[in-house]
Design a protein that fits this description.
This protein is of the alpha/beta class. It is built from eight helices and 14 strands. Helix 5 packs antiparallel against helix 7. The termini are far apart. The model has no long low-confidence stretch (mean pLDDT 95).
Length: 315
């Protein structure tokens, strides 16, 4: 059977390896659908999403609809007439008419072991909630969000110190490999569809700003997981002298601290200690607002912090 004509939908860095592997294996790409350019960076200039950058570098046609349900886009979709739609972290919900149209259906690259962690931020929440394993699922899309049948799935361990960025990159590469295998199975007619156990579903909602605020009255393990799960982006944070202080790397020590949660101690070889409910969190890499990210020792040279100061919330 000839290689299917693919319409690719994706936006952020996670989707880049999946688009790249299809292009490298000479699959005919009807087009690349990605989100519109958005303001970003210090100058808040409109920046192209990573998938668009790769698509243009490979001379692939790029379409950036504001909404997939718009009549103009739906007419364009009909003209493109793909055999299969591949979706990886696109950022919009597909209308039912698109899901039903391709002869080989729509398949999604999702970075979790579905039915666990359905939703927008599965990698972050898997770390924050202390999971020891995760993976990637290639799913046949349905009208329900992340509820479709499983076509292929692979489990991987989460490293004890692995942060969101590291796990994200590892899963994005794995997702591309599984996607290629799935497309090959579809072409060969050897795919099997395994329905999800909806009763076992858990959810990974979109991250809100307040999700990153550290409560120093929490236990050490939970604080470290939050820092890892949000590093490098969007970043767990606290407040120092009324300024937002992001924390990108830290270690923990469970002890009977005996100090007010949030109280800063003297710098040690482990980092800058901050009291938590049941021990200390040692800050290793931080960034105060309007400054660059840096190791805590370098930060303290330019921004002395008195022992006994307390990290807290915005006034």
């Amino acid at each position: 059977m000839a290689k299917p004509r693919i319409l690719f939908m994706g936006t952020p860095e996670f989707a880049v390896p999946s688009l790249a592997i299809l292009a490298e294996n000479n699959y005919p790409l009807a087009g690349v659908i990605t989100q519109p350019d958005r303001p970003g960076g210090r100058g808040r200039k409109n920046l192209p999403p990573p998938v668009k950058v790769l698509a243009e570098a490979r001379n692939l046609p790029v379409i950036q609809p504001e909404r997939l349900g718009d009549e103009l886009f739906l007419k364009l979709f009909e003209r493109l007439s793909p055999d299969v739609v591949v979706l990886a972290a696109f950022g919009q919900i597909l209308p039912g008419s698109i899901i039903a149209a391709p002869v080989m259906g729509c398949i999604n690259v999702h970075p979790s072991l579905l039915p666990k962690y359905r939703g927008a931020a599965p990698i972050n929440w898997a770390i924050i909630r202390g999971e020891e394993k995760t993976g990637v699922t290639i799913m046949q899309m349905s009208d329900g969000i992340d509820e479709g049948d499983i076509l292929l799935q692979k489990e991987v361990p989460i490293g004890a110190e692995e942060n969101f960025g590291e796990l994200h990159d590892r899963l994005s590469r794995l997702g591309a490999e599984l996607l290629l295998s799935t497309i090959e199975m579809i072409v060969a007619g050897t795919t099997t569809r395994t329905p999800q156990d909806h009763a076992a579903a858990t959810y990974a909602p979109r991250l809100k700003r307040e999700d990153g605020l550290i409560s120093w009255n929490a236990d050490v393990v939970g604080i470290i997981r939050l820092i890892r799960g949000l590093s490098p982006s969007p970043g767990a944070y606290t407040v120092l002298d009324g300024k937002k202080l992001k924390i990108f790397a830290a270690s923990g020590e469970e002890t009977s601290a005996g100090n007010m949660p949030g109280k800063i101690g003297r710098e040690t070889e482990k980092g800058l200690p901050v009291a938590a409910r049941n021990g200390y969190v040692y800050l290793r890499e931080i960034q105060i607002e309007s400054k660059k990210r840096m190791p805590v020792r370098e930060f303290l040279r330019g921004y002395p912090v008195k022992p006994g100061s307390v990290l807290g919330v915005f006034s």
